Structure formats: structure tokens, C-alpha cells
Amino acid sequence: MIDATGLQENLLHKGYSVGVADGVIGPRTLAALAAYVAGRDLTTLLPIGKGMARYLPEFGLLDTAPRLANFIGQTAHESGGYRWLREIWGPTPTQRRYEGRRDLGNTQPGDGKRYMGRGILQITGRANYVEMAMRTGEPLVDQPELAERPDIAVLTACIFWRSRKINLAVDAGQEDKVTRIINGGVTGIEDRRELVAKARGIIP
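Above: the chain's sequence. Below: its structure in C-alpha cell form.
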């Protein structure tokens, strides 16, 4: 189990006000952890912290320090330090190729842009939005922009994490495998390693 009081004391020492070190990993503590790892201001990440406090326990992500550190490090990388809950759209040549990609379920005109990456582990493509709509109960197919809402952004990341059995890779110490599961390759692996290590360094 995570030493919640120790985590809060470490965050306080780094200048992140979590209030009293009461041993409860709540929204402010998780917002502070995310902010520390991402190099952000705590208050801007309170909505993310609220989402994490609501969903991380259900998905076993507060069970161990490595699980929490990997989740925070990977989601911080994927979202540009939690700045971007929606993919920055150019469109780039890669984004233009989203259109018509049957492996993403993009079978209707405009699907490429409509189902761009959203969330803290960005879901992309109609098929993934259909899956997440079923799992969350939210109308993400008709209103894909809902995936940018902080609580839903956290929930879809947790669902993806569980569906790909990422905790098993973390528990086995296979952190580079976590990157390959999320990314399909090793893009950004050095930054991911650094962010996970930063999180791991402050979580007792």
C-alpha cells in the first residue's frame, strides 16, 4: 500500500500545499502529485485530481506506488503535462490519414477529425469512442467532446489501463512494456521514463 502521509509530506516539502498530511489520498493530493510531475500549478489540476480521486481506487491504481507512478507518468506524457485533453489538430499528414482508417472504425466522412484523440490517454477513432461510450455510459459517439471533460478523461484512461492489463506489466517491473502497450511503439520513451521516475521518487 502507498504511504499516503509520506506522500503528502513529500509534496508539502516540494512546495505543493495539500493542506494537512492526514493520510487520505484525495483530490488535492492527487492534483498536487500530477502538478509536481508535470511541473504545473496545483490549482489548475484540481479537476483532474477530482477525477483521479473518484476513479483510481476502483481500478487498483492506488494499491501500489509503482502503479500510481506509472499512471501519473504516462498520462502526464500523453497529455503534455495535462495541458491537452484534446489532440492538437493541424491537420498534420498523420491526422489526415485518420480519415477512412477502418482499423480505427472511421468509416463515415469526417470521422477522422470528429474522433480525434481526447483524454489523458487519448482515445482515437470511432471504434474506440463506441467502446468507451459503452463502458462509461456517456454519449461519446454523439458528443465526442465529452471525452475532454476531466472526470471522463480520467475514467477513459482507467478503462484503457484495465482493458490492456497494464497493471500486470507494472507489477512485473516491465515499465517499457507499459509504453509499448499505450503507444504501440516506443515514441517518447525517455520522457516517459523520466516522468515515471519523478513520480516514483516522491511516492513512498
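The chain has two domains: 4-84+151-202, 93-148.
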